[in-house]
């Protein structure tokens, strides 16, 4: 038996309210320009006027809005989903942080991210990642700014292919606010901008590139180093890092490691170094 409920599960309809002429004046409801029923405004089984605004039970218009509505009275939960939209699913977990990351799949990408962490929910509608299982989201929970509290680092793969892997990182850090401590996302300086500002690279032969960092020069064997086709964020030795090189295959001999520090309320470059070998980062998806 369906349960009729109102205030807690109503959608405000964006319609124009015309003052009542008489008690029998029908209240017409339109969804996407089409009338779906006309009833008296005193029939409160469908419509209520609260504070001068009309409210309609979502159950009564769910079919017109193409919504699935499930109400669980025992557990006091309401599930609303769009029949035509892909459904959210778990894409990464990290027990250490009590964190579960959800997203929807669309055309080879993950989008509409939602993070459930320690009882709270955060939405990230502008994040994007590939939905390829081998390049799934990675979660880390470490004290990367040495303040005595762990930060949640989420690494997403935004592009991949033959010899290519591009990632981006998001750091959620505990921050004091007037409503208590919340996990707030902090800015991370763009690694390509750091390279462009601090590193000089030039080809010295068909398969050699000269890399200059400060006063130190190093040669690397490379296929096409200047394209920077591997940008891999991770947490390494309790620090936020990104490793940058040319092609993965055929591989460059080494790469550039940028280590970040938290300064002026954002993550900025702490150290830039050339490494002959890629560090042993965790590159697997997080389901822990």
Strand order of the largest sheet: 15-16-23-22-21-20
> What class would the helix/strand composition place it in?
mainly beta
Number of helices: 2
> What is the CA-CA span between the terminal residues?
40 Å
Number of domains: 2
Q: pLDDT average, as an integer?
A: 79
Content of β-strand: over 45%
The global form is elongated
> Sheet with the most strands?
6 strands, mixed, barrel
Protein name: Copper amine oxidase-like N-terminal domain-containing protein
Describe the structure.
By secondary structure, the protein is mostly beta strands. The protein has 2 domains: 7-82, no CATH class; 89-275, no CATH class. 4% of the residues lie in helices and 55% in strands. The strands form 6 sheets. A 6-stranded mixed β-barrel has the order 15-16-23-22-21-20. Strands 8, 9, 10, 11 and 12 form a 5-stranded antiparallel beta sheet that branches. It has a 3-stranded antiparallel beta sheet with strand order 1-5-4. The protein is elongated and about 80 Å long. It starts with 9 loop residues before the first strand and ends in a 13-residue tail after the last strand. The relative contact order is 0.10. The model is unreliable at 1-24 and 38-44 (pLDDT under 50).
């Amino acid at each position: 038996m369906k349960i009729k409920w109102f205030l807690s599960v109503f959608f405000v309809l964006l319609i124009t309210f015309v003052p009542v002429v008489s008690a029998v004046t029908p209240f017409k409801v339109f969804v996407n320009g089409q009338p779906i029923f006309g009833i008296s405004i005193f029939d409160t089984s469908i419509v209520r006027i609260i504070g001068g605004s009309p409210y309609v039970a979502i159950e009564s218009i769910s079919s017109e809005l193409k919504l699935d509505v499930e109400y669980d009275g025992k557990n006091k939960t309401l599930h609303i989903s769009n029949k035509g939209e892909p459904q959210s699913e778990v894409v990464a977990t990290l027990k250490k942080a009590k964190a579960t990351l959800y997203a929807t799949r669309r055309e080879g990408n993950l989008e509409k991210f939602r993070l459930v962490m320690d009882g709270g929910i955060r939405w990230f509608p502008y994040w994007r990642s590939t939905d390829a299982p081998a390049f799934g989201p990675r979660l880390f929970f470490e004290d990367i700014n040495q303040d005595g509290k762990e930060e949640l680092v989420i690494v997403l793969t935004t592009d991949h292919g033959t010899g290519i892997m591009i990632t981006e990182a998001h750091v959620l850090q505990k921050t004091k606010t007037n409503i208590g401590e919340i996990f707030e996302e902090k800015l991370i300086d763009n690694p390509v901008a750091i390279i462009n500002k601090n590193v000089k690279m030039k080809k010295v032969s068909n398969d050699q590139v000269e890399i200059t960092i400060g006063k130190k020069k190093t040669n690397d064997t490379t296929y096409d180093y200047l394209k920077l086709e591997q940008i891999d964020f991770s947490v390494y030795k309790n620090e936020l890092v990104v490793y940058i090189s040319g092609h993965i295959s055929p591989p460059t001999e080494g790469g550039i490691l940028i280590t970040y520090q938290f300064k002026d309320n954002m993550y900025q470059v702490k150290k830039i170094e050339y490494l002959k070998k890629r560090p042993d980062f965790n590159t697997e998806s997080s389901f822990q």
